[in-house]
């Protein structure tokens, strides 16, 4: 029988490696599990992609195309004191915002990273850190004011949390 001996530093390295493997294996399994399929292929993610594409149309009707009957929109942080909006007030707000832009987009960050948008199956929620904004519309009165102040483009960021559930017909419905 051989006599094995390890130094304290070798034991620490081995323990750290074991801990790292133990912690990463469930995460790797969850993210690559063939039984759950790729996140991009879920109906929820496809509904979210439609929402992202709808922003570039500058049409509130396109944004609302997949909205649920009990749709609400809440901007955070609450300290902004922006009201929670149901569908019609939200479309009115979107109309006002879209009028400021010639071009608008909402792009998950970092662009092109397949992990920039996440779907949580337990809560039917799609979560994404996005950059949003675009080219200011000089034909709009408030847009002209922005351009005169030196803002030809305006960009901000948000973390979107969209709850997406199936309606009675099996279609995915959006609630923000």
Task: Describe the overall structure.
- The chain has helices spanning 8-32, 43-55, 60-64, 87-99, 141-148, and strands at 72-73, 85-86, 105-108, 117-120, 125-135, 153-166, 172-175.
- It has a single domain, classed as Nuclear Transport Factor 2, Chain: A, CATH 3.10.450.
- The protein contains 5 helices and 7 strands; from the N terminus they run αααββαβββαββ.
- A hairpin with a 4-residue loop joins strand 4 and strand 5.
- The chain is of the alpha+beta class and 176 residues long.
- Residues 33-38 have low confidence and may be disordered.
- The longest helix has 25 residues, at 8-32.
- The radius of gyration is 23 Å and the shape is extended.
- Strands 3, 4, 5, 6 and 7 form a 5-stranded antiparallel sheet that branches. A two-stranded antiparallel ribbon has the order 1-2.
Helix and strand sequence: HHHEEHEEEHEE
As for the CATH topology, it is Nuclear Transport Factor 2, Chain: A
- Report the mean per-residue pLDDT as an integer: 82
Q: Count of helical segments?
A: 5
CATH architecture field? Roll
As an assembly, this protein is single chain
The helix content is 25-40%
Uncertain runs are: 33-38
Instruction: Give the domain tally.
Output: 1
What overall form do the CA principal axes indicate?
Answer: extended
Radius of gyration: 23 Å
The biggest beta sheet is recorded as: 5 strands, antiparallel
C-alpha end-to-end distance: 65 Å
Level-1 CATH class name: Alpha Beta
What structural class results from the helix and strand content?
Answer: alpha+beta
């Amino acid at each position: 029988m051989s006599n094995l001996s390890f130094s304290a530093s070798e034991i620490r390295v081995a323990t750290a490696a074991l801990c790292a493997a133990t912690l990463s294996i469930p995460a790797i399994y969850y993210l690559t599990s063939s039984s759950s399929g790729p996140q991009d292929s879920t109906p929820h993610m496809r509904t979210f992609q439609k929402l992202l594409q709808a922003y570039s149309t500058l049409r509130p009707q396109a944004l609302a195309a997949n909205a649920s009957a009990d749709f609400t929109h809440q901007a955070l942080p609450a300290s902004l004191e922006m009201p929670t909006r149901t569908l019609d007030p939200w479309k009115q707000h979107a109309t006002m915002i879209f009028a400021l832009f010639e071009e608008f987009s909402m792009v998950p960050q970092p662009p092109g990273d397949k992990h920039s948008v996440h779907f949580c199956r337990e809560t039917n929620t799609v979560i994404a850190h996005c950059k949003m904004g675009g080219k200011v519309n000089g034909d709009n009165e408030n847009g002209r004011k922005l351009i005169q102040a030196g803002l030809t483009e305006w960009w901000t960021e948000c973390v979107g949390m969209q709850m997406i559930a199936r309606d009675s017909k099996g279609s995915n419905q959006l609630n923000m």
